Amino acid sequence: MVMDLDDGTRLSRCLRCDAWVHSSRPDATELAPTPRPLRGKALDELVVIRAIAIERGLHVVFFLTLAVLLVLLEFGLPALQSDAQTLLPLLDQTRGGQQFFSGWLNRLINLDGGHVWVLAGMSLGYALLEAVEAFFLWQGKRWAEYLTVVATAAFLPLEIYELVNKASALKVAALAVNLAILAYLIWTKRLFGVRGGIASLERELAADVDWDELERRAPLTEQT
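-> structure tokens emitted (224 positions)
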């Protein structure tokens, strides 16, 4: 958005932050249509959506790391089980060792390698899902918001079960974050037809920015 001045120069306006830049007037051949950036509520919503995308990205890092550790565990499992069988009789001779480590070593000895591969595959699959969510949420794709809601809601029963089985501050925080994300996406982004759906959301965002008024408003302070 620009305003040509009588001295042959031009004031160019940033459509996002309203800053004005004084510059020379370009040739007509240099002119091109200017896309309208997000402003107001639409920009605020994109900031929140990108924060959710970053949170999903952290999930990707976690599950990829877990998958790598599980694969390494699988390859080293025979040696670990052999070492555990050697250590277990020694630990059984001490009360402290038996109390703290014997149960863990027994689980390691009885660990099935097939289960490790299953867990590694699940971790990789979940990392891929979260990566898709994170990438397309960052791009502002509405279908990615639906995917995030469905995926998050699908894991809520497991989170609640884990919390009931053994509560911890980390589990409570994770559940609270996921519930907040679900509430924000469904209510603010009006998914699944909530509060009038996408049509109502588009009307609200269109009414939030008056482009005609922006075009009429001159930078009187800057000119003087």
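Strands lie at 2-4, 9-13, 20-24.
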